[in-house]
Each structure stands twice: as structure tokens, then as C-alpha cells.
Description:
By secondary structure, the chain is α+β, with helices and mostly antiparallel strands. Helix 3 packs across helix 4. The strands form 3 sheets. Strands 2-1-3-4-5-6-9 form a 7-stranded antiparallel beta sheet, covered by helices on one side. A 6-stranded antiparallel beta sheet has the order 10-15-14-13-12-11. Strands 7-8 form a two-stranded antiparallel ribbon.
Amino acid sequence: MQIYRGKTLLSKDADFAAFTKFYGEAVTDKSHDPFLLVRGDEKRLLVVTNNGMVMLSLAAGPNDCLVSYASSYSDGSRSFAGLSRQLSARDDSFVEPIFAIKAIRAFFDRKRLSEHIDFRLGTPDSEITEFPSQMTARKQIERHLVEMRVVVTPELKSDMQEVCEYLSAVANDPDENIDFDDAIQIGSLCGGRLNRRRDIYLFSYHLDKGDVWSFEVPRTVLDGIADGSIDNLTVDASVPKNVTNNAVNQSGGSDGV
């Protein structure tokens, strides 16, 4: 991960611990400089701190930008130091630091930031799509849905372990509702329980480059994926049209993930 403080490069290959060190030093110095994180896949995350609150702006492409959002009764705005100049953003784009830091960690780990904070379309500092290099629009890939047998990836197993731990933790909690299709968002998995009586779940597993595996299974299969006793799975896969079933079956995904 490249880390910039403003437009000054601090590190070309930093981990999350390095970022927290740089960020902590800036907070101690009472600096208002923004931090820009640039991942190996070219996605960028702008981190702005203002009066103890944090705004995150995520760019996956020139026309694919998001900004953090927190429920607020205020319709005001506040100024902040952008990469090159003073800018302004809505008050409700600034979120609590505890959730922002978790989202930043998710960015390092290539997991879903939306597990920790909400986002909406837009970015207060459009320069993040131009610095340190111009982002180009991603080519649209035509996809289709096919049923196939796939190999359970290590990432899917790891994420499913967290899902099963969560399901066990909330099993007897009347305040936790897992009975809708995106009730559970952990790692690259998104899903929920479809049938309480039969204990049937529907999950979508999102691979790095756009493929999605969807599967409707009982809880016992989720546990089998998590403990490694199930290493193959029948899924409905959204894959590029030029990818054959055999290629996906051998690789565990059309991107080899």
C-alpha cells in the first residue's frame, strides 16, 4: 500500500500498522493533512480528520467514487484540507473514528468497508482519481449466470468461519434479525436465512475481479465449509461469457482467485 500525507509519499509498501503510526503522529501534531492510501489494484481511499471526526472517500475508478455517510440532523458543511486546496463537505460525511479505523483496516485487508460505515455516491475531492496517476474507467465485462461445481477457496473458508461464529453467537438473541438476504455481511460474503424452520441460508460470495458465486444451502453445509469437511460446492456463478465451466471448475473462479 502506498501512503501519502497530502501529496508527500510516506511509504511505497506499508501495512496497516505503518498507517496507524503515521496517522497517530498526525493526530498528535494536530495536523489536518489528509491521508491518501493507494492499493495495488489502484483503488484509493482518502482519509480526512476534522474536529475529531473522520471522512472517508473511496475511488475504484474515475466514475466510481463513494463518500462516507452518517445519519445527522445537521444539513451544514465544514471545510477541510484537500490534496491541493481547501474544500468543503457535508457534516454528515464525517463519521466516528472508531468505525472509520475499522473501515480503513478493511481497505488494507481487501474486505468490505460497508460492514463498518455507510457510503453514498460522490467524493468531495475529485483529485483522488487523478493523483498520483490518472484512473481509467474499467472495461465493462459481459457476464452470464451458470451452475457449476467450484473448489472452496481459502478466503471463502475463512470468511465462512466468521459467519458461523456469528450465527452461533446470535442464535438465541431475539434482537438479532438474520432473516433477510443481506442481513449478514462478513468479508466477501453477503446473505441471510431464507427459511427459519428448515434452517436454509442464501449467500453470495464476491471474488476479487467481479465474479459472484451464489448458493442456497442448510446450516450444516455452512459449517462444513467453515471446518474444511466440504471443499467443493455447487453454485450459481456470475462469470464472463467467454469463460467456460471447465475453466472455472479448475481454478476455483474465472480470475484464478
